[in-house]
Fold this sequence. Notes:
By secondary structure, the chain is an alpha+beta fold. The chain is 21% helix and 29% strand.
Amino acid sequence: MSVKEACSGDIVVVAGISDISIGDTICTENKVNPMETIKIEEPTMSMNFLINTSPFVGMSGKYVTTRHLKSRLEKELEINVGLKVEPLEDAIDGYRVSGRGELHLSILLENMRREGYEVSVSRPEVILKKIDGVVMEPIERVMVNVPEIYSGSVISKLNIRKGVMTSMVPDGNYVRVEYMVPTRGLLGYRTELINDTRGEGTIVRTFDHYEKFKGEIPQRLNGVLISNDEGEAIAYSLNNLESRGTLFIGPGEKVYEGMIIGMCARGEDITVNPCKAKKQSNTRSSSADESIKLTPPRVMTLETALEFINDDELVEVTPDSIRLRKRYLTEMERRKQANRSRTCN
């Protein structure tokens, strides 16, 4: 029963029942009359939470083991009723965590990193259902408010992502567009919207219903720049790499083999050495490198990192940094895995 106030002597908190959950009713022993259970929306998206296995593990976090990860997720389940945690079948050091969208899961990750946890997470995956033998996927209602001059780009991008327009209403110099889009199609779209509308576009999205699977949706077209060495990034080397794509790191930042340091301008991944220094010579002056001017690196937040990665990549979440890496760090391991994938297909 809900009340606006409580007086002295009223019971407002009950303790001592260890297995109680949100939505349960406490009854007297001889008069069991429970209230109807609260219906909780099912998760629509999942990610794999893995222990951090990078060379920099433990440098900034206090909790880095599977035991710590398991304990923290079990604690979260006590208060986060929309969360679902399952151990991974093919990996003993990880868990499949399901929630109601990217924001739901990214908030958990942000809280964990602030508490001192280190964890690696995979790309978000949409949870598909089978209803009467038909594969169904979650559909979201998307409302985008953009300046009229950018509306064409927004409509084009949402159409490519299998979206269906339901309304388009002018509002002064702005246009309010409403779409029904598969959740899969919205992965990574927020960053694109900000870039396409010069930061003036806003998006509101809510889960609506399940529909028949819409087919393949184009993913990220660009490859990445992968470090092949461990050490500190050097301005001379980064200056040479700028022509190959957009960098995510600056001079002096520590890198390791298999770490993603930038987005490639082409469609394939390229292995590079950001730690390579300029060779010494008799004609080199002491101020020769002072003239190097680098473009500021693209800063990857937790949300943008989760949107950016592909299936063979991970986001390394630590208390003081967000790094991107390949699932398999060495080039030899990546080649072996690629050969296995071709053999299986």
